[in-house]
Amino acid sequence: MATASNQNYTLTYDPGSKGFPSFYSYAPDWMIGMNNFFYTFRNGNLYRHNTNELRNNYYGIDYPSTLTSVFNDQPLENKLFKTINLEGDDSWGVTLESDQQTTGFINNEFFEKKEGSYFGYIRNSGSTPALLDNYALRSLNGLGNTTTVVTTGTTQILSYPTTLFIGNILSIGDMVYYGHPNPILAGQIIDINQNLSFGANTLTIDNTTTGAVPIPSQEVYTLYIKNSVAESHGVLGHYGVFKLTNSNTSKIELFAVLADVMKSFP
């Protein structure tokens, strides 16, 4: 038996490989092999293993199958991990961590089946605003200085000079920050009114976003960070540790895991 994260596992040994290939989620009271079958006892009940088609289930409890490995080619180069490609007959849930980011993920439903494989873009998890160490990422863009800030209840309207083009990459759902050199979260964009010929160049933000602090002054430098889930910028790092999770109760096979990786150029 091995214990990790307050969870008991059964560790198996393979004489052929002379190693320990797998951890199993079941933790029996006793186990025995007899007449080419594997039996375990749990809470006074006798179980015979590998005799039905139900997978990921032990003693009436469902457990997910997990697999953890690492992409570590050219470890001295900083890279962007963009996609995951699964060669198998089903999609898996994926999390990806690097030495610089720990929030990469792909949900099962985000995968698309292409030419017999499952293909998905790596996203970044959560709606929590980005931390300070994410300001150097490609999802960050400068907006410029506001001319006025009008507060109405829990929203603020940020006006910009009509000579300032705030860009067409900006979208509803992005997070607005203000101040320099340590930006403060102001809120989430809920409306964009950019009609320069009629003198309109404003953003409306919601200050109720977790961690947001309303902008206290009229003229302030602002910037924004794209929605990390909707915008697939990938995960930045020298290596990528990925974990696959599947909760299927039927037999599935996985042959290979590949990643689309590009060198990062600061």
Oligomer classification: single chain
Q: How big a fraction of the residues is strand?
A: over 45%
* Count of individual beta strands: 25
Number of helices: 0
Terminal Cα separation, in Å?
Answer: 47 Å
Mean pLDDT: 86
Structural class: mainly beta
Low-confidence regions:
127-133
**Percentage of residues assigned to helices:** under 10%
Strand order of the largest sheet: 16-22-19-20-21-18-17
Number of domains: 3
Q: Largest sheet at a glance? A: 7 strands, antiparallel
Principal-axes shape call: elongated
The gyration radius over C-alpha positions equals 25 Å
Order of helices and strands: EEEEEEEEEEEEEEEEEEEEEEEEE
Overview of the molecule:
The chain has 266 residues and is mostly beta strands. It folds into three domains: 2-63, no CATH class; 66-126 and 231-263, no CATH class; 132-225, Elongation Factor Tu (Ef-tu), domain 3, CATH 2.40.30. Helix content is 0%, strand content 48%. It has no helices and 25 strands. The strands form six sheets. A seven-stranded antiparallel beta sheet has the order 16-22-19-20-21-18-17, with no helix packed on it. Strand 7 and strand 8 (61-62) form a beta hairpin. The chain is elongated and about 85 Å long.
